[in-house]
Description:
The protein is α/β, with parallel strands linked by helices. It has helices spanning 45-52, 80-88, 108-118, 124-137, 154-166, 184-201, 212-218, 236-241, 246-257; strands spanning 7-16, 19-29, 34-38, 60-67, 71-74, 91-94, 172-176, 204-209, 221-226, 229-235.
Amino acid sequence: xxxxxxxxxxxxxxxxxxxxxxxxxxxxxxxxxxxxxxxxxxxxxxxxxxxxxxxxxxxxxxxxxxxxxxxxxxxxxxxxxxxxxxxxxxxxxxxxxxxxxxxxxxxxxxxxxxxxxxxxxxxxxxxxxxxxxxxxxxxxxxxxxxxxxxxxxxxxxxxxxxxxxxxxxxxxxxxxxxxxxxxxxxxxxxxxxxxxxxxxxxxxxxxxxxxxxxxxxxxxxxxxxxxxxxxxxxxxxxxxxxxxxxxxxxxxxxxxxx
Length: 258
């Protein structure tokens, strides 16, 4: 068992002028662990996620990742090429809207193969073979390998985005509302798929969502955000079954009343 966190977030803060994105957020994520971040729209959860994933530069704090080659490194101070390579290899980012994470003008197989080529794969047969395997793994008919994502349903596009992200075997996946905008039945199928992949690949993940059912199913740890601050954190079941903060109690009770 590793005694070094895979990801250590220390004092992350981000402002947009007078508006607070997030303030002084800190936590550790261990290998194989899933962290859920919940809160209403505008609570700061997506700002925090994008600061961690390198899409935004925080005003303060560190995002320390235990790299394979050099051990713990602060990704905030990494060079852009280093961070970009990390995003192709050990990190992955699943967008809420699959179109933001796919090349819509490229075939399904091309979308998966493109990430393999970004890390040096060159043998066409091997790339196509891996793409076929991953389409099957995310429950897409491999016969559609040459079809473009624009011909796929929303749920299929999201599963294709997941295949594109996971084909290089990342150790950490950031997910921004991965089931948002999908029908309930499609959400359930996607969640079941995600849970299986996280378990089978030993993935660590940070999942931002407003849906408590998503974190109940996927997350080991849970942070609740309000107005840019973490107001409660702990084991997921503990936080949801016995919320201590008034805002968390409100979130949980609103779900129970639906």
